[in-house]
Amino acid sequence: MSDLPALSTAQVRRTPTTLADGRDFFYYDDSEPYVSGEQTRRLDDPRPLADRFAPVESADGSTQPVTGPEMRYDVLTGEWVPMASHRMNRPHLPGGNANPLAPAKPGAEYSDGEIPDTDYDVVVFENRFPSLMRVPGASDEVTHLDGDDLYPVRPAVGRCEVICFSPDASASLSSVSPTRMRTIVEAWADRTAALAQIDGVQQVYCFENRGAEIGVTLHHPHGQIYAYPFLTPKTDAMLRQARAHRERTGRNLLRDVLDAELASGRRIVAESEHWVAYVPAAARWPVEVHVAPRRDVPDLPATTDAERTDFAELYLSLLSRLDRFFVDSDGEPMPLPYISGWHQAPASARDDLRLHLQLFSIRRAPGKLKYLAGSESGMGAWISDTTPERIADRLKEIHL
What we know:
single chain, HIT family, subunit A, 20% helix, 22% strand
């Protein structure tokens, strides 16, 4: 682990170890006696798991090398589509006694959880059921489905990691302390820097899915970090727009977007010394907010300690307000189901793209969700159920 990037000066200690099947695991501690190194979290994993890359026995009794997920090129859209059928076997809404993201139970000899210690601050580990994975020694060459050049196929190399925000299964990201949120930002930045160095990785995406309505399969405060072997369609589209804008104006598109929002002020919902939160002018979701740094920053590793601390405080405030965006018939706040993720400039586009976080929800009213109907799902032609100004007005009227 000596090749890991150095952490910033924040009081966070990273402790690496390896799970029983060989996956990487990291503790990120901000509390004593662990942050000082006086004590160390449990590092051994007692589970009787086989090495994930060990040869497997096939149906006919022969031994075959393990294979990873593959991806196929969609010639109609120019997009790579990973095929990860093995993920059908991952845990889906297990009971409270079978939560794989909870700490180990004190005194228990064995449990099939992913965290060896009985407590933790923040942890990151490789996903047990990844949709992107590099198998050591396996070829990363492009082949063709059915031998036809029209259908390129290649291994879905890359990496998928899980980040747990709290050991408390009943908590949410909005309920963690500013110190813990700062540790989470540190972990995001640290893993982004490390994953970006993996051969073949083109882009790193840190994100959180929250709420059963979104499709979350584990009710525990956690997120994911994907290291893609391609530029995602969203990033590719933004890059085309950014490069066309630079060709016309000589300026950075995302810088101009932030400046335009600041000049207008109409859709800004929160500001701090280093960050601005606003509803984008062409918001397509019923609730959508972008959070951008005032300084031109390509990715999380490029942010300063002051920017990370400032973001932690602003983001927790924003999440608290979003959880009160909708209220039920009794006037009680309704926790917002959402997807929140960091758009970071890939190495190939650091001068064209700019760091920003996008948070959006499919809830359009109490008890009602936005379903992607024919126009959105079939043609990708979006129809909004509201206006960005109405979203911003609602967030502005919510006071902490």
